[in-house]
Structures are given as C-alpha cells and as structure tokens.
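Please fill in the sequence for the structure shown.

STRUCTURE ENCODING:
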C-alpha cells in the first residue's frame, strides 16, 4: 500500500519534472524566437545595404543635414548633450536614426577621429546576460577594454565607447551619444 507521504513525494516529483520540462520548452522556444528575429534583422540590414548601393551608384559620399557628419556612406550625429542610455536611444529615434550599431571594425575605426577622446553611448546592451545591439543583432566583432566587460557593482548593462574601446557601464550614467542615420545606410 502507498502511504500518504509516498504519494505526496511522487506527486511533488512529478510536478517538479513537469516544471523543469516546461522551463526547458520555454528556453528552446525563446532561443528559436531570438534566431528568427536575428535572421529578420539581418535580412533587413542586407536590404538596406543593397538599397544604399543602388541609390549611391555613381555618386560620392552622401550629403548630411547640418549638425550631422557624413562619414563614408552614412550620416552620424555626435551629441553634445549628456543623457542616460535610454534617453540617448529615444533621442536618436526622434531624429529618425538609431543609437549607434556598428556594422564592423572599419566603421568604428572611421568614427574614432571624430570622437575627440570622449566617451559616447553606443547601442549595445546586455539582455539576459548576452551583449546585443538594441536592434536585436549580435555583434559581429567586439572591442572591449582590457578586463571588460566586468559588470562592476552588478549594474553595468550598457556600453560606452571611447577611442574605439568599449566599457560596460551603468545605463543611468549621463554621457554623450552617437546616432546613425536610418535614411541612408
């Protein structure tokens, strides 16, 4: 005969197993969704690049609005105001731009001379312990300072770039920021 204690142990064991299985199923589903989003965003980026190539055929660098800098085929806004990461992200959106997402090291190297040695917010943020561009893409390269990222104080979930090197930093710190145009890159 099964005692009441044995019955409750079996019931508890079954419940724990069901919870663990549900947790694993959710983890797999979340990863599949991330992969899908990443593929969509990469396809979008490829389309933008193709449109840019076609629209610039036979032309030199693009022209930028005042207060923006044209560097290569893109336009960049280097803020003088200092704000939190979220405020920078919002301001870039209001300018029909995005907080800087670096396509490659060459793009980063082209921006460094315009930074005057100052730190700027870039669009990289830690989401569930993964560094991800705010548009969902995984960085194709990194340029961390030595011993970074280190999550000092347990609150460093955003990234500043200074002289081409990255540092994880508290998102509520106020820094200047770089927006990249979404209308011609």
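FILLED IN BY: designer on duty
SEQUENCE:
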């Amino acid at each position: 005969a099964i005692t009441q204690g044995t019955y409750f142990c079996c019931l508890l064991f079954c419940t724990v197993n069901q919870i663990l299985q549900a947790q694993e199923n959710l983890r797999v589903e979340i990863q599949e969704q991330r992969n899908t989003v990443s593929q969509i965003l990469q396809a979008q980026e490829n389309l933008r690049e193709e449109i840019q190539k076609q629209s610039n055929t036979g032309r030199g660098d693009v022209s930028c609005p005042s207060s923006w800098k044209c560097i290569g085929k893109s336009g960049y806004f280097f803020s003088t105001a200092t704000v939190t990461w979220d405020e920078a992200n919002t301001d870039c959106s209001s300018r029909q731009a995005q907080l800087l997402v670096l396509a490659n090291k060459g793009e980063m190297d082209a921006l460094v001379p315009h930074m005057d040695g100052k730190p700027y917010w870039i669009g990289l943020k830690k989401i569930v312990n993964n560094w991800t561009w705010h548009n969902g893409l995984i960085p194709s390269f990194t340029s961390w300072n030595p011993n970074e990222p280190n999550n000092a104080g347990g609150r460093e979930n955003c990234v500043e770039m200074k002289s081409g090197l990255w540092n994880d930093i508290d998102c509520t710190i106020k820094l200047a920021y770089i927006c990249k145009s979404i209308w011609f890159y």
